[in-house]
Specification:
Keywords: ATP-binding, Nucleotide-binding, Nucleotidyltransferase, Transferase. It contains 21 helices and eleven strands. With about 550 residues, it is an alpha+beta fold. Helix 2 packs across helix 5, helix 3 packs antiparallel against helix 4 and helix 17 crosses helix 18. The chain starts with about 25 loop residues before the first helix and ends with a helix.
Length: about 550
Amino acid sequence: MTIGKPISQHYVYPDTQILKNKYNLMDAAQLEEKCAQNIAEATIALRKESFPERFDSSYIKHIHKCMFEKTFEWAGHTRDKPFIFMDGSSAYMPEMSLSENVHYADGKEFRKLFREFDNTLAEKNNLRGLSRTEFIRHAAPLFASLNYIHPFRDGNEHVQRLFFERLSQFAGHELNFSLVTRERMIDACSGAMERNNLTLVRHMFEDISNPHKREILQNFMKHAESFQKEGFDTRNVVVALEDFPVFGVFAGVRDDIVAVSTKDMLVICETKDFDEEQQLKTLSKGDFVSFSSKQSPEILIPEKKMGFLPKNELFQMIEKHILIRESTQLIQRLSQTVYNNPNILDDKLSQINKDQSFAATLSQQIETNPRSIAELAGAKYLFVKNNTRKNAENCALALATVVREHGEIATYVCEQSVENYQQERERKGVSIDVPNARLQNVLSLSKSAKLQKEAFLLDPDLKKEFECYEKALNKRLSRKEHKAIEEKDFLELAKTVGVSIKQAQKIARIVDLTKATQRHVQELDAESSKKLITAVVKQRKRAASF
């Protein structure tokens, strides 16, 4: 029988702020230590699990249950519904607040927001197939939304981090939340809730998803303690945004990491990204400084992270493959002869497409006991069989054979599909920068073969640089995209690459310039080879005359 009303106070022991726990611990520090240990163990196990079919509220509850089931009875249960404890008391917490004026979602909007969260991820295919920048743009509002929903009485931050860590991995990216200080996380979430401002969340995601910036943060963490000893606040550390002015107090340099203390954060960057490298030599700790981190190279073609291949997508690839369709049609024709039903084995063929080993079992069953599947076609009276029954019995062995072969075909198609997906994943996972100034200068000479050849002869390193760029650019574009460039179908190119039509035109222009330049390089190589052969022949003639 429920004791009293289901109220939030029943989550804690009477006259305390200690959450009821399975260890019956009444000391907050001891409970926190035990809880942290359980979270760490569960996190390791969760990271080893296969990715879920859907990233949604059900998976969020699963994460919470795994993390806290050893600690709390209500692990995996959201705060919007009453939970009945073993002692009979009932608790729920439809209202929660970040501060006096800032509230999390209440019970009335809780389920609606969770549905919207689930639907958004489903509609956006779990954020797969996006560049890193696009992933951040879509993930940031989802992160803020889940933070606002705050589904559990406790443990939301741990669940939120791991959910987005796993989501990013599934989508082909990486979010390393270990590089986010607690103060920074609080600031980012507060900004999203109090001012509906996602700037800090996006900045945080940029820092922990960009490999270069992750490395900067990791290097800084090694020296964080030394900055603290010198009186600088390291509770909120961010990497400088490109071309964004920073004003603050110079905190020093450690292992090529520049640190500047501003009003509410410590901004860091590499010395090579500092726009005034000469200025560093004259700066002393405590000096006022203003700087902008150097802008990253302009991207011509963004990367598209396809992420892992889900089982359901692999199954669809197998089902649609021409070899599978042809094999299925043959089995259906034989099934008509043997069982008078062309679709009698359709469900079992789908099972084979998912689990190819089942083909041998089914084939053996049809061969040894075809009637175990269904009644054979035709009729038999005593010892007399009509022609339809005779044909059915005669074709049963052939049906068993093609079923076994269907399994072999499905195995081949599965392996090819995985290999093709991996190749496509690697191709799309590379971004291509706009040619640097040196390359742009030589590309601008593409109308003059003579001038381009002279430029490459004078600078062999430039020739190597161009050849590397041309190879990377050519490899990044698919046959379909190359065809769109040849046909000047910029709309199609924009769709497949994932850029604006204006950017697609720029890509096509640079591809055309590189093709023209590559022809001149090939001519130069041929001319050089011819000259080398002529020189060798002359040398041999001279040697023979002595």
